[in-house]
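Box 3.1 A note on notation
Throughout this textbook, protein chains are presented in two layers. The first layer is the amino acid sequence; the second is a token string describing backbone geometry. Keep the layers aligned when reading.
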Amino acid sequence: MVTDPIADFLTRIRNAQMANHRIVEIPASNLKKRMTEILYDKGYILKYKFEEDGKQGLIKIALKYDAASRQPAITSLERVSRPGLRQYAKPEEFKRVLNGLGIAIISTSKGVMTDKEAKSQNVGGEVLCYIH
């Protein structure tokens, strides 16, 4: 059993990119599905597919690389809030990630969203991770 499923999600993506894998498989949950959708919407991954396997389900993510330099689209995945130390922030307290070029994924009362969406809806929440 994994004690921190979000850290496991980020680590699987990080490790797959370091090994230059095209596809990574991750055990599914509703939170991880929403995080995957955000990564796709913001252009950090090529495609994703949710598969049912009779148990928990799987998320298959096709990773995105630069054609010329073979560098991954995601340069950094940083876990912020963790089970031992939760990090909460109000909309005016959100930090800019990589001077506005990266995103923060926030878990709010209105669902999981990016920091920019949360700021526009004026809702705070738990800062899950920074991605750039």
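The mean pLDDT is 94. The beta strands are 23-27, 45-51, 58-63, 77-79, 88-89, 103-108, 111-114, 125-131.
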